[in-house]
Amino acid sequence: MMFIIRSSVCLLSILFLSLVQAAPKYDYGDVLGKSILFYEAQRSGKLPATNRVHWRADSALNDKGLNGEDLTGGWYDAGDNIKFGYPMANVVTMLNWGLLRYKDAYQDSGQLDHMYDCVRWGLTWLVKCHTAPNELYIMVGDPTDDHRHWNRPENMTTKRTPKKIDAAHPGSDAASEYAAAMASGYLVFKTKDPDFAAELLQHAKQLSSFAKNHRGSYSKTLTSDFNLYNSADESDEMPWGMAWLYKATNESSYLQDAKSMYQGGTAWAQSWDNKLLGTSVRDDTYKTDIESSMTEWLPGRSVPYSPHGLAVRTKWGSLRYASNMAFMALLAADDGIQTDKYRKWAMSQINYALGDTGRSYVVGFGTNPPTHPHHRAASCPDMQTPCDFSWYSKPSPNPHVLTGALVGGPGLNEAYTDRRSDYIQNEVAVDYNAGFQSAVAGTY
């Protein structure tokens, strides 16, 4: 009898320890919900009745194209009040990808409906920007004028200059990224909202043809107009867009184009301007390229590490690149490529952002989170109080909590100051959260 009792106690102890070890380190579902709220705080245009960010209101209601086209909506890019279509389209693609692969995480955390609203908001603006088969708006706002002012978007008086590409001024990179966003959006909504999905697919096909038939990089075509979000070239976006269209349509011509355009090699990182790794991860026959790119991010290779384990590709937005690569690692691991190694590494990068060093880099989450992110709307007081650069310089925390925003993050030596003026380490951006949120969904 004593043996049976002792054995039972041992078994219960082992079971208890297993349950403790299996408990998640952080509340990843809470992080998902907060990240979605960040995207709601970035909304431009007429806000819906369901708006959950009480300190935001309608803004930029007169955003128009050169011929009066409605360009309201979308997301403000970062801590400023500009809408950049090229990186925004990539944000939508990355969010769609995370939703498609990790839908259960959103469902189980109670965030699925909010996530559908999130990506629909971005997709709806991208559709507005595609005003003709070979015409696409890629920016609204004037970066120079915008950065001279510090005010909330509801009260801004800065120029809202629209910029577009067309057959005479091509941008295969931007057109392909918009196509990827809409093709992935089709996959997200084909069952939930077939009419919206069909509209997205039609735009994706037209944009893919536009990109293929009128080659060129948008930032080279519009050289005098762009000094932010310059594209290196269109060589990675072209196969990226084709790969998503093949996934959406199963038409072999898109697969053939994707394979013929794909140049291969080792990716610097997955980012708004580099989709080489993302394209290879979409087809695990390119296992060598996937492993080559991921290997450079593991300890001891070309990407240096901070003392507590953050892979720092560059000091500007260090957490953004680490999070994007964590998402890529999780996708590869799910497909059976270095599963244990890549998943462990991905978890280490996401957990670093959430607090493994004793502080969180996500606003409104965890221990000692940022309270002074570089963000105009959050740093401005209530609507009735004027806002200008005097609020930029105030030492007090932002009057409004920019819940869920991932800040740029520390440098290689892990020095970090929660200072509003630091746009390198303490600004936020819609592209910072995209790969991060999708990776969090993958860790849920």
Automatic annotation (TrEMBL):
It comes from Pinctada imbricata (Atlantic pearl-oyster). Its EC number is 3.2.1.4. It comes from the Eukaryota. The keyword tRNA-binding does not apply. One of its GO terms (biological process) is cellulose catabolic process. The active site is at H374, D418, E427. Keywords: Carbohydrate metabolism, Cellulose degradation, Glycosidase, Hydrolase, Polysaccharide degradation, Signal. It catalyses: Endohydrolysis of (1->4)-beta-D-glucosidic linkages in cellulose, lichenin and cereal beta-D-glucans. Residues 1-22 form the signal peptide. This is Endoglucanase.
